[in-house]
Amino acid sequence: MPSVVAGDKRRPSMSGRIQNAFTRLKAKGQAGVIAYLTAGYPTLEGTASLIRAAIEGGAALIELGIPFSDPLADGATHQRSSAEALRQGTTLSHCLQVAREVRDVYEEVPLVLMGYYNTMLSYGLERLARDAAEAGVDGFIPVDLPPEEAGAFLNATRPKGLVLIFLVAPTSTDDRLEAIARAAGGFIYCVSLAGVTGARADLPDHLSSFLQRVRAHTPLPLAVGFGISRRDHVEAVARLAQAAVVGSALTDVIAHAEMKDAPRAVQEFIADLVGTQEGRK
Question: Which residue numbers are catalytic?
Fold first, then answer.
């Protein structure tokens, strides 16, 4: 498989919708809330309505999770949502159909597919890039794909205007951050701690120094995920980065709501997270 060229210093690629979203946020002096929802949870038919509710609540960007049977980075909440989605037969093709439904209503909100590389590779990279672009997807977050092995996916997605978004962690070395920065597009997903997804009471003390280290390697927007569950978390992230990702806490909101009430619960939860933020200028 082709690898990323070590000396590649090309300008980081940006989907137009992603770039425009972060430009709007900067103009408002805000950090964005990125909402993660598992496709097919709690039902495939209801996924698009939950995404629409998150957008109406103020989500700046949507991550649509591709359910997978053997997740490595997901905690119990996302494991359960993924297992239920798979039980209902949700596939990557279904995820693309959900993306089409959302894009038909919202032309400007960025939408990225997040999941494990095996599912994407099995679909076929060229086919996936073509179908995703046609569905209005802006890029992918292949959670377990290292940049050294991302060449084939980059070659398939870049001509279609799609970006690959990579994860970095507090344990990432400076050499590792540099390699990821060369391959990444859209934004950098900064994992706030060494662990799996899941709502937590407090953000880690090392977050500021970690993000400063990432910033030294890339001009791309930084999004912080893993553990975001409250407005004060979002406000803290807004002083350090350009977006906060909420996933497990949002999935818990859905899990505890009656089916008919879930869209309203999602909208209200996201609206509360967005609140009034003092973002980076």
Answer: 63, 74
pLDDT digits (tens, 9 = 90+) for 139-164: 999 999 999 999 999 999 999 999 99
Residue 23 class from Cβ within 10 Å (0-12 exposed, 13-18 middle, 19+ buried)? exposed
- Report the alpha-carbon distance of residue 213 to residue 236 in Å, rounded: 17
174-179: long-range pairs with CB below 8 Å, 24+: 174/213, 174/216, 174/217, 177/213, 177/214, 177/216, 177/217, 177/218, 178/217, 179/4, 179/6, 179/147, 179/148
The encoded tokens of residue 136 equal 């209005």
Contact call for residues 191 and 168 (beta carbons, < 8 A)? yes
Residue 101 in domain: yes
Residue 5 lies in a domain: no
Residues 226-272 have pLDDT tens digits of: 878 889 989 999 999 999 999 989 999 999 999 999 999 999 999 99
> Phi and psi of 228, rounded to 5°?
-75, 125
Domain-embedded: residue 139: yes
Give the total number of structural domains in the chain: 1
What six digits make up the tokens of 272? 């509360």
CATH number at residue 50: 3.20.20.70
Range of the domain at 21: 16-274
For the four alpha carbons of 28, 99, 188 and 74, in that order, the dihedral sign comes to positive
Written as one string, the DSSP assignment of 222-250 is EEEESS--SHHHHHHHHTTSSEEEE-HHH
Per-residue pLDDT of 21-57, as tens digits, reads 999 999 999 999 999 999 999 999 999 999 999 999 9
Phi, psi of 202 (to 5 degrees): -135, 150
The residue behind tokens 């008919």 is: 260
